[in-house]
Amino acid sequence: MQDKTRLRQQDFWTALVLIAISIFFLYKTSEIPFFRANAAGVESGQWYNSAALVPYGIFAAILLLGLSLLLTAIRQGGAPNALQVQAVRDWMFSSSAGRMGAVALILLCYIFCLVPRVDFIIGSALVILALTYGFHVQRPRATFIALVAVLIPSIYALLFHFPQSEWNTPHDDDWLALAAFFVLTITMFIDIRMAGEKPDGFLKAAPLVALLVPALLIVAMAFGFRQNVPNRTGLFFKQIEYQYYVNVRPWLSGKKGG
């Protein structure tokens, strides 16, 4: 019973952190025009073309998750004791707080280091896989491995392409992020085997899903909604865009004409 109460106390503070993070990023996202707006005399497109659409969805989901976790913690007795100083101290040094810190750091690296500089598909796939492995597997070592896998290419991209991204230069940061993705994939399965476990279906599909989700998203954004996407000359997207305009679009035009 004490273990359950302590877990709910940790959930209480974890929920508050999630809510604070989501509200902050929702506020920052609100600075991006969402509905029709005029910028320098040019009228923007509809709301579904806005660059704020995806961040709104992500951080709104995190906010709902935090609120749900908070309500669950309060209903199961996590709030009263959590207001004590000792409870706060326990949470700060708990594995739950460490995992939350790792999530925050990974998201910061993604937003400020990877997205502005690295190919969107590669950077997003790396972060999705890191979050999946680091927090689906309930071991601190898994969280640490996932965090390091994101930190290395993020720090490299920030240091060697600071202050502005250099999308037309050789894709050294793209290649490093791609290498980190494959190394993390291999390390994930090795670590699970070393722990005496077997990867479940969720983890087996994680690398493929991590690549497909951002690829489908950016294809829909670029060619479906005609929205600007980050790093159009990225290692993967450059090839996708080339194939679309050289092969797919002429084929579709010919099919319509026929």
UniProtKB/TrEMBL annotation:
Transmembrane portions of the chain: 12-27, 47-71, 91-114, 120-137, 144-163, 175-193, 205-225
Keyword Transmembrane in record: yes
N-terminal signal peptide: none
Q: What is this protein called?
A: Tripartite tricarboxylate transporter TctB family protein
Q: Does the keyword Membrane apply?
A: yes
Q: Which UniProt keywords apply?
A: Membrane, Transmembrane, Transmembrane helix
